[in-house]
Known about the structure:
The complex is a heterodimer.
Chain A: H1 9-37, H2 41-74, H3 81-86, H4 96-100, H5 104-125, H6 130-147, E1 151-153, E2 156-158, H7 166-169, H8 172-175, H9 206-220, H10 222-233, H11 246-274, H12 285-310, H13 314-336, H14 354-372, H15 376-395, H16 399-420, H17 434-456, H18 458-465, E3 469-470, H19 475-496, H20 507-531, H21 540-567, H22 577-597, E4 600-601, E5 625-628, E6 633-635, E7 638-647, E8 653-662, E9 668-671, E10 674-679, E11 682-688, E12 690-693, E13 697-705, E14 719-724, E15 728-731, E16 734-744, E17 757-767, E18 772-775, E19 778-782, E20 785-789, E21 791-793, E22 798-806, E23 809-816, E24 823-832, H23 834-873
Antiparallel strand pairs in A: 1-2, 4-24, 5-24, 6-7, 7-8, 8-9, 8-10, 10-11, 12-13, 13-24, 14-23, 15-16, 16-17, 17-18, 17-19, 19-20, 21-22, 22-23
Helix pairs in contact in A: 1-2, 1-6, 2-5, 5-6, 5-9, 6-10, 9-11, 10-11, 10-13, 10-14, 11-12, 11-23, 12-13, 12-17, 13-14, 14-15, 14-16, 15-16, 17-19, 19-21, 20-21, 21-22, 22-23
Chain B: H1 3-25, E1 27-30, H2 32-37, E2 42-49, E3 56-58, E4 62-71, E5 77-82, E6 95-102, E7 107-115, H3 124-136
Amino acid sequence: MDYSGEHLLPGLLGHFFIILSLVASLVATFSYFKAVRSATESDATSWKNLARGAFIAEVISVFSIFGILFFIISNHFFEYKYAWQHSSRTLEVKYLLSCFWEGQEGSFLLWSTWHCVLGLILIRKSRQWEAPVMTVVSFAQVCLATMIAGIYFFNWRMGSNPFVLLRNEFDLRSQIPMLNVGDNYRNYLSFIRDGNDLNPLLQNYWMVIHPPVLFLGFASTIVPFAYAISGLWTKKFADPIGIGWTRPALPWALFSAAVLGTGVMMGGAWAYESLSFGGYWAWDPVENASMVPWLVLIAGIHTLLIYKHTGRSLRSTYLFFILSFLLVLYSTFLTRSGILGDTSVHAFTDLGMNLQLFLLLYVFVWLAAIAGAKKFTDRVYVLIAAIVLLIAAKYIPVPAVAFLSLIAGLITTIVFIQKNVPSERKDEEQTSSREFWMFIGTLIFFLTALFIIIATSLPVINKIFGRKFTMGEDSVFSYNRVIIFVAIIIGILTAVTQYLRYKQTDLKFFWKKITWPTLIAIVIASLVLAFGNINYQDHGAGFLGAIWLATVCAIYSVIANAAYIWLGMKGRLKLSGGSIAHLGFGFMLVGILISSSKKEVLSWNTSGIFVPLGEGSKEKPGENLTLVKGMPTTMGNFNVIYESDSVNPRKPLWYYKLHFKSKTSTEQFTLMPNAFVNYKGNQGLMANPDAKHYWDHDIFTYITSLPDPEKNKDTSSFKSETLKTGDTAFYSNGFYVLDEVITKDNIPAGGLAPTDKVFMATIKVFSKNKTSYTSKPFLINKGGNFIPVQDTVTSENLIFQLNKVNGNSAELAVKESNSVLQYVTLKAYKFPFINLLWSGVILMVTGMIISIVRRVELNKASRQVAEEFLEEKI
Amino acid sequence: MKKIHIVLLVFIAVTIGVLISFMGTLSTYDTVQTAMRKRGKVVSIIARLDRTHPVEYDAIKNPNFLSFMAYDSLGGNMKVIYRKEKPTNLEHSERLVLKGRMNDDHFECSEILMKCPSKYKDDMNQAKKNLQENAATKPANNSTTQYQ
């Protein structure tokens, strides 16, 4: 059957490029693999050339798939399920990209696209490491291509294809009865007027930019991983003359950490600005899962630095780089398998690909183990073990078996690294050495990562052990009370460690240098504690003490690192990437500590009638405040008036205009929090906050409740009466005067033809309590049709409607009704010093970028030395 | 034994300690009946809203007081009090996860998680419903006009 209005060509092209990308990445993997294993130089070169060609074909395919899918979405081709499911015609152009990565297929595609870009750079830059590193990258591309392949093997569908058609996925005839009539099914597209739309919470500009950055962060963790695997695989474990894998891996790891860190914090910024839980971090499983790989990567960067300067910690470096990529895969599994469904607000839903997601993780865990085995026979044994365990996991339907088979792979990897990677130094490090304390810091990061990922995996643990655990009463606090101690130790370590020297430090020299920064930090920290009024009572004196201590340590970290740029580096910023990054990290710590411990609720309920809370109840007064339209209400240091509301012309997005006026100063401003009301089957409202930003704090508010129109059904009716101008009439709470009736050609809303007329009455209302109001109802004469536009005096519960105008007399209908009481219920917070956090992130990333530039330069220099050395030898 | 090994052992011990104390903060899923036996302890109850009783919430009087009846799959029912704003789609929820403490006459709830037939999770059933609605209604006939 032919269907009218369909555009099938883009989909066919898309299918073609998906298959091509699968084949091309397979060829690239195989050819790069052969290039590594070739015995002669010329063999290796020809395999490598073939592999490059295949990889470029892969790049072209992936870019084409990306372009075609975007073309389909931006043209609203709703015959494609992806476009129908994730976009709509009413969506602003800037959010079309967000639709692209709302779905799993699009975000896999994004990931794959970044791999392509990174692969192209690696082909150009990685020289003798190209073949092994690109084998790993190409293999990852094979795996990602299977995720969007949508190919059936018997009854099992591999991957989810973004180009499937709506009519093939849904039984449209049973959904839309009209399609069964006559020839309608042929024209089914004319019945599908609009798409399902983008989730309103994702209609935020951060959602345009956060996912690409985060996925570049995820994607780039493969590079240090691939270098580490290449080191194991080719048995060039160490870096004897300056051409080892550790040198190029360092700037890549820094790049990955900078981008992943930015991406994670952009997610925080999105949560802060659009999710109504009043903060940038909620220890949500999805947030945790993206932060944990970053923590491990940072640990890896530090052990790699230790290795470069002292020859120690090479094994830990292998482990951390391998783990950080595996953790990215694990978090992919967590967030996409639907297993977090009950515990997270922003996980993906189950696409029926859990087996595939598990396999992705499984394959890479065991790949590391195979690479770790030194002898060929060992590698074969490990491969057999991996296959046997996988079959066991399939036929023993106990989740614990699958889990244990992953753990077995990890342990095998660790054992092989321990056994095969040579240790250059057997002696013990000095307690006064920099590497000793750096290593302690990396251990803390690693163990913190372990704690967070275990806590986040609670749903997985429940599944494996058949338990019914759930987070306790205050899940945020159960993380914070642990992390606060991490902040204390890391704060001190980042402050002090740079003043130590590698291998051994002259302690006299150390004390001399660190005395002043320490004293300054103590003075500043005392001032902050004395006058900063950090007084967080929710969890007792012990926790407050820990917050104080952590604040002191974080300030110490800031001062000591800033000082080190001058004392240690003599102000040479190009060399101070590390200090700048640590300085930024210190600022982040200070910002996090102060902003979360000094967050204030402004909307303490002062107007409502309190329900007796019972004796000894620790219940706080409520955080929600109700504002009646037009009535000034006290909120903290402000008088707030709910002035008016307006609606987005294209969708049920309502804006509530709230005017804030300070009680102590002349300061005043307007905030417009908004909410989707009854949006596409989502009953109720989805609120977006609005904030007023100051350099040192933000005022932040969002709507929590609106009147329910069902419950406020209007029961009173209009009474009409004819008045001349100047006449007075009474209502229950006072009287009103018809001031004048005028004729106008236009109204602010517009849309009138030249022949149309508008009558406008001006009514003065005088209430008993001596306040007066003005009301202006309209009557529109639109080509002989009379359309009244009512006007309301909210605080008097009065509604006026102009029914007829005859010269200077008018028929006025009046209604007194309780249902005109319009109100919003809202929450408002004050967040102090949130900008310290954001500027800390920016500083940290800047420091990392400076380090990347410097490391690339150093690598170039050391490569030249190595090449000269090799030439001399020949 | 090297210093670093001692540090390692101490850290591992601390991590295990932290994890054990973390386990201590966890609560469990319960039914109304088992929660009655654990009065004052934090539990999570999976329940449904009892639609035969009115949901008590008046934002004008007190926007921080919500009270309703809920029952679980074993038939146990209880009065729930939640001293925060009414979750906006409470009436449309299919399932509630209520976290809180059981008191003598009511369940003092500190957190409500709703399982809704919602677009939020890209629920395909809801998507199908939207498909029907999109095809069935004219764009002009928008249900939100009642808010004007």
